[in-house]
Amino acid sequence: MIEEIEFPSEGATLRGRLFMPDALPQVQKPPVIIMAHGTSATIFMGVDSYAETFCRAGFAVLLYDHRNLGRSGGEPRQEINPWIQARGYRDAIDFVETRDDLDAGRIALWGSSYSGGEVMVVGAMDERIKAISAQCPVCGTEPPVLATNRANFEVLKETFLRGDVRGSRQTTTGPIPVVSCDQMGTPSILKPIQAFRWFIDYGGRAGTHWINNVTRVIPDTPVPFNPVLCAPFVKAPILMTVAPEDEMVHANYAVARLAFDLMPGPKEWHDIRGGHFGLIYCPSDLFDEATRLQVGFFKQWLS
User: Fold this and answer.
1) Nearest CA among 146, 135, 145 for reference residue 109
2) Among 17, 54, 140, 199, which residue has the least CB neighbours within 10 Å?
3) Predicted confidence (pLDDT) per residue in 128-168, tens digit
4) What distance in Å separates the CA atoms of residue 288 and residue 278, rounded to the nearest whole number?
5) pLDDT number for residue 9
6) Would you tell me the crossing angle of helices 114-125 and 150-162 to the nearest 10 degrees?
């Protein structure tokens, strides 16, 4: 069963779909996996195949578009801000807690690329999360300059909870195309040709609500939004599925490994072929590999 849902977040209405598994005893509430896509992508761009696979395995799945994107509300349109998107995950958890047909005591987060880094940050902030799956996560081009200590984490957490995360002209890039096949003539925010190929293939399909432009805001906060700074404080079990040949500079393999090594709790690392976009081609052998690992991981920690 698929239900169209919406919930409030940061003054806007986020919209998506709730996938409910079949054949559950009436007294049993399913665990929930909360999912959102990466940079500018929408719920109809391959990630819904992940949601369907997880649902067939017995999980409820809440899949939604980030604020300002796709079918979700919010202005300015096409603006992405990692703090605002991370708060969206938090508000999705709040929404799950309002549902009598879902087990709010067994909630997992799933993210890919930009949202893969976001679920690592949210996972350090919110104790309601019982498992995290981050695939090809954006952890930065290089290790953070600031120390990975509690003092910096507490400042980051306060910003997440209550801080001013509005951008300024100096901290805003765009509007700019998401992808382009001509970096000399029309530069884009995502530069590799593999990004162009995937976004035009999946975003160019009818009904995706994807638009090939974006404005990226990185607010000048006291401590920057950074998964590595949060890594020592991620207590929930985490599975990181990472591509050694990742083309995206902000999804630096070594930086992702640094974050993984800093995490103190139960954790799994899996190298996957195909670069940044290989495992979000569906169907494919890499999609099957990734979902098989993730289903096993979620069953281990949410059952």
Assistant:
1) 135
2) 17
3) 999 999 999 999 999 999 999 999 999 999 999 999 999 88
4) 11
5) 98
6) 100
d(CA 248, CA 82): 17
Contact status, residue 60 vs residue 2, Cβ threshold 8 Å: no
Range of the domain at 291: 2-166+225-302
Query: CA-based angle 39:103:110, to the nearest 5?
Result: 20
Distance CA 38, CA 210 (A): 12
Model pTM score: 0.97
Specify the amino acid at residue 89.
Answer: Y
Whether 200 is covered by a domain: the verdict is no
Structural domains of the chain, count: 1
Strands 267-271 and 238-242: parallel
Tally Cβ neighbours within 10 Å of residue 268.
Answer: 15
Question: What is the DSSP annotation of 99-129?
Answer: -TTS-TTSEEEEEETHHHHHHHHHHHH-TTE
* DSSP code of residue 278: G
Q: Please, are residues 38 and 115 in contact by the beta-carbon 8 Å criterion?
A: yes
- Tell whether the model's pLDDT for residue 24 goes beyond 80: no
Return all residues near 25 (Cβ < 8 A) that are at least 6 apart: none
Which residues, in sequence order, are CB contacts of 154 under 8 Å at separation 6+? none
177 within domain boundaries: no
Contacts of 284 (CB under 8 A, 6+ apart): 278
User: Which CATH number belongs to the domain containing residue 115 in this structure?
Assistant: 3.40.50.1820
Residues belonging to the chain: 303
Coil vs helix vs strand at 233: helix
Q: In this structure, is residue 202 part of a structural domain? A: no
**Percentage of the chain surpassing pLDDT 90?**
96
Encoding tokens for residue 96? 């799950």
